[in-house]
Amino acid sequence: MIAYLQQKGFPEVALHFVKDELTRFNLALESGNIEIALESAKKLDEKDHWYRLGVEALRQGNAGIVEYAYQKTKNFERLSFLYLITGNLDKLSKMMKIAEVKNEVMGQFHDALYLGDVRERVKILEDAGHLPLAYITANVHGLKDTAERLAEKLGGNVPSLPKEKKASLLKPPTPILGGGDWPLLMVTKGIFEGGLDATVRGGHEEYEEAADADWGESLDIGEVENLQNGDISMVLEDEEGKEENDEEGGWDLEDLDLPPDTDTPKTASNARSSVFVTPNPGMPVSQIWVQKSSLAAEHAAAGNFDTAMRLLSRQLGIKNFSPLKQLFADLHMGSHTYLRAFSSAPVISLAIERGWSESASPNVRGPPALIFNFSQLEENLKL
């Protein structure tokens, strides 16, 4: 029956008839049920399952579960990049310390690049024996004292730098907002979920706990700074996970008291009690101007220059529109205002209505705002 339901495209139904954790985990991933998948992954506790859970959580935009899965698999490279794209610079700094303790020079250098930490990059290059690169980095970024010290070490092998007239600082932009979990729509419970709330409630609580926990706070950086490179027994568990160092500040997340200070939304079971209906988009104001008006000027204000020229040609017999080109552009620009959004998003265009007021009905749209009046036109004629 389970295979039949899965074959027919109902893995979420088959999920409630399965007791085997591996099958349950696979069905949960197939149906996108991140709650049950997390519950099964904790019981299976295998690297491959944590990796697959992280992939599915990333697809759903659940940054908290992705972070948890990466930490369970000790995938530090992906974890650092996750902190970068979510704007979590504090945790990214901790990852740089962890890379230093583990003596992973490349990972440490990447984290320093992500953070825009020039002094740390110079230090890493110097410690790695790349003195010419360290000197160039320090000199280019204006660290004169460090550059002079490195020049003394290099002696006569100081590299020459080209003199560029235009130079710009290559530094990652400072995140304005820290990204968390993606917002999710509320959905109704399935026919089987309503009767099985009592049995899966424990899994829901584990999911909420994982989503709300600030997993990055488990890194004890205070102890990391006192360790020598290569000695990581007090910071991380053994790579194979065979040794336990719970009393010495390892990365065993099961025993940590993690403060719920992140603002990731909970996915409680009662949040599915109602259905969210996406509102239908309204008609743009500029399109309403075109539909309701037969004036060429209002069509030009809406940006529909073709219909404006056809109206003028039909109503007044105008054939040469070259003298009207600037007037058309002025009408359109004068009846719109523009707002900047995010740097990766296009500019938002807003139509300006004539005589608009807050007390006006939102269903009644006015004509476009005027940029010319008779007195202005008279003055233009005098010139």
Characterization of this structure:
The chain is mainly α and 383 residues long. Helices cover 49% and strands 2% of the residues. It is built from 19 helices and two strands. Helix 4 runs antiparallel to helix 5 (47-60), helix 5 packs antiparallel against helix 6 and helix 8 packs antiparallel against helix 9 (105-115).
Brief overview:
With 383 residues, the protein is mainly alpha-helical. Helix content is 49%, strand content 2%. About 17% of the residues have low confidence.
Keywords:
Serine Threonine Protein Phosphatase 5, Tetratricopeptide repeat; 49% helix; 19 helices; 383 residues; mainly alpha
Write the layout of secondary structure elements.
Blueprint: H1 2-7, H2 11-14, H3 21-31, H4 34-44, H5 47-60, H6 63-72, H7 76-85, H8 89-101, H9 105-115, H10 118-127, H11 131-140, H12 144-154, H13 197-212, H14 221-224, H15 285-292, H16 296-301, H17 305-316, H18 325-334, E1 336-339, E2 348-351, H19 374-382
Antiparallel strand pairs: 1-2
Helix pairs in contact: 3-4, 4-5, 4-13, 5-6, 6-7, 6-13, 7-8, 7-9, 8-9, 9-10, 10-11, 11-12
- Gyration radius from CA atoms, angstroms: 31 Å
Helix content: 40-55%
Low-confidence stretches: 196-207, 220-273
CATH architectural type of the domain at 2-157: Alpha Horseshoe
- Could you report the average pLDDT, rounded to the nearest whole number? 75
The helix-strand sequence is HHHHHHHHHHHHHHHHHHEEH
Count of β-strands = 2
Kindly identify the CATH topology of the domain at 2-157: Serine Threonine Protein Phosphatase 5, Tetratricopeptide repeat
* Spatial strand sequence of the major β-sheet: 1-2
Continuous helix count: 19
Distance between the termini: 88 Å
Shape: flat
Structural class: mainly alpha
Sheet with the most strands?
A: 2 strands, antiparallel
